[in-house]
């Protein structure tokens, strides 16, 4: 087991019954096998307010999701900031709103990043398109490098 000094949560989300949309959950499940100390992974269908408590308890959070790829099919790596959280929030949030809710409820705002994986097929199904399948390798490299970067902050 590799020791990590700063606590990190990786939240992979998306619908695993909609082909490429499930890549966030798949990546979270595979990263969980890395057996990193002080590192938790969560594979969820969508981002919900209940995740704010988890996010408040870590030094950094990494979100992983699919995005609809057009001509560009690269993995995107985005540093996130919190956004205002609407009072009428119901069930699902985007990462920035979830960070805003975390800050509002717990007065904590960990560093946050999004790893966005290109997807081209969001139809019913459980397999990934070749675009998403090949992008997963780069996503793992991004995540591995990001973990090392977080430890050096």
General description of the model:
This protein has a single domain (8-151), classed as 3-Layer(aba) Sandwich (Rossmann fold), CATH 3.40.50. 33% of the residues lie in helices and 23% in strands. The protein is built from four helices and five strands. It has helices spanning 23-32, 51-56, 95-106, 130-151, and strands at residues 8-13, 39-44, 60-68, 76-80, 111-119.
> What does the radius of gyration come to?
15 Å
| Poorly predicted residue ranges | none
Order of helices and strands: EHEHEEHEH
Q: In the CATH scheme, what's the topology name?
A: Rossmann fold
Q: Helices and strands: which structural class?
A: alpha/beta
| CATH H-level superfamily | HybD-like
- Helix fraction, binned, reads 25-40%
Number of helices: 4
The counted number of beta strands is: 5
Measured between the Cα atoms of the first and last residue, the distance is: 21 Å
Could you give the order of strands across the largest sheet?
2-1-3-5-4
The total number of structural domains is 1
Mean pLDDT: 91
Structure described in brief:
With 153 residues, the chain is of the alpha/beta class. 33% of the residues lie in helices and 23% in strands. It has a single domain (8-151), classed as HybD-like (Rossmann fold, 3-Layer(aba) Sandwich), CATH 3.40.50.
Write a concise keyword list for the protein shown above:
153 residues; alpha/beta; Rossmann fold; 5-stranded mixed β-sheet
């Amino acid at each position: 087991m590799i020791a990590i000094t700063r606590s990190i949560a990786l939240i992979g989300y998306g619908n695993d019954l909609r082909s490429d949309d499930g890549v966030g959950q798949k990546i979270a499940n595979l990263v969980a096998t890395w057996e990193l100390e002080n590192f938790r992974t969560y594979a969820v269908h969508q981002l919900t307010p209940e995740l704010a408590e988890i996010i408040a308890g870590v030094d950094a959070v990494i979100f992983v999701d699919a995005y609809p790829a057009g001509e560009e099919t690269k993995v995107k790596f985005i540093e996130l900031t919190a956004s205002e959280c609407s009072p009428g929030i119901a069930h699902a949030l985007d990462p920035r709103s979830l960070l805003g809710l975390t800050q509002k409820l717990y007065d904590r705002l960990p560093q946050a990043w999004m790893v966005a994986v290109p997807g081209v097929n969001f139809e019913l199904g459980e397999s990934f398109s070749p675009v998403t399948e090949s992008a997963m390798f780069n996503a793992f490299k991004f995540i591995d490098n990001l973990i090392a970067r977080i430890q050096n902050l």
